[in-house]
Design brief:
The protein has 322 residues and is of the alpha/beta class. It has a domain at 19-38 and 47-94. The protein is built from eight helices and eight strands; from the N terminus they run H-H-H-H-E-E-E-E-E-H-E-H-E-E-H-H. Strand 7 (254-255) and strand 8 form a beta hairpin. Helix 3 runs antiparallel to helix 4 (78-89). It is extended, with a radius of gyration of 29 Å. The model is unreliable at 36-46 (pLDDT under 50). One of its GO terms (cellular component) is cytoplasm.
Length: 322
């Protein structure tokens, strides 16, 4: 599927919410009819289940028993289980477009999605949207539900934040853009409080950001930012990288998955006022501990001087790619 909406429809088919033991089929019709047309029953009498129909308890057991052919795999999400059980107990709640109101978390991973389409606006209760490992290069913020609190787009092809920041979800708390194609310094201007007033966590790791000073000046406006990940960018190779960030963003709690303790903050105090220490250069030290698969030169060293043995020369080329 090329769009998020198409991938969601495929997800629904995979869940089988309209198939046995879920849905409104003949196997579960009595439960629905009893709710739609309640009637007084004599005290002490229970409604009999017609032949060919099952009680909700029996249908739920078919979903929960791992030996059942209708059971979900053990690694499925809690929401998958919830939707399947709702489709048994109250299938009318998931009928037609009502299913969009029941989804608060949508995870579509590695499904070839290229477009974040306006069909997402049907999810009026959506709080978490995970679209990792797809082929998304551009996100139109007008297509995102305003209720979003988590947006994860890692392992995509996003190279420009302009479309995402045109009308971003105001309550967003986490934005994940790791392993994309963001290049500085044109993108830093989109990472300010004007666009993300409630952002607590930001992951920009493994992109191509190079302007540390420019990025910090924008991130410093995010008053609620507590978690920041920048490792894997060229700017992370700058010698004073971590110390400058720790001192420049005093409210930050975690940088590159490492907690910032008070003694570290004290150690780098004042570094933010010395931007001249930040140089656009880096030093990389490579240490080779052990090399395997090379011919042993010892047998050839035993040849006596003047012998007629062949002279064999080995040369090796080691290449580092950055």
């Amino acid at each position: 599927p090329g769009s998020v909406s198409a991938a969601f429809q495929e997800y629904l088919r995979h869940l089988g919410l309209q198939e046995f033991p879920c849905g409104l089929g003949s196997w579960n019709k009595s439960c629905l009819n009893a709710r739609r047309s309640p009637r007084a029953e004599p005290v002490g009498l229970e409604e009999a289940v017609p032949p060919g129909e099952e009680t909700p308890e029996v249908l739920l057991e078919l979903l929960r028993d791992q030996h059942s052919p209708w059971a979900l795999p053990p690694d499925c999400s809690p929401q998958d289980r919830l939707l399947r059980e709702v489709a048994v107990l109250a299938p009318e709640l998931l009928h037609g477009s009502r299913v969009f109101q029941a989804v608060k978390s949508l995870r579509i991973l590695d499904k070839g999605v290229e477009e974040v389409d306006e069909g997402l606006l049907q999810f009026q209760q959506l709080e978490e949207l995970i679209l990792s490992a797809n082929h998304i290069s551009r996100v139109t913020s007008a297509h995102l539900p305003r209720t979003l609190k988590v947006l994860e787009l890692c392992y995509n092809a996003v190279g420009d934040l302009q479309g995402l920041c045109a009308w971003p979800p105001p309550e967003l708390q986490h934005l994940g853009l790791a392993y994309n194609r963001l290049c500085g310094p044109s993108q830093e201007k989109h990472l300010t409080v004007d666009f993300w007033p409630n952002l607590v966590s930001l992951d920009l790791s493994f992109n191509s950001l190079t302007d540390l000073l420019g990025l910090v000046s924008q991130l410093s406006t995010l008053q609620n930012l507590r978690i920041l990940v920048l490792q894997g960018n060229p700017l992370a190779l700058i010698p004073t990288y971590r110390g400058f960030l720790v001192d420049s963003l005093p409210k930050l709690s975690i940088l590159d998955d490492i907690h910032i303790w008070p003694d570290e903050r004290q150690q780098f105090q004042g570094l933010a006022r010395q931007p001249e220490l930040i140089r656009s250069e880096a030093r990389v030290v490579v240490s080779i501990g052990e090399m395997k698969g090379l011919p042993d030169p010892k047998p050839f060293q035993k040849l006596k001087v003047g012998s007629e043995g062949p002279v064999i020369t080995y040369s090796y080329c080691v290449t580092y790619e950055f």
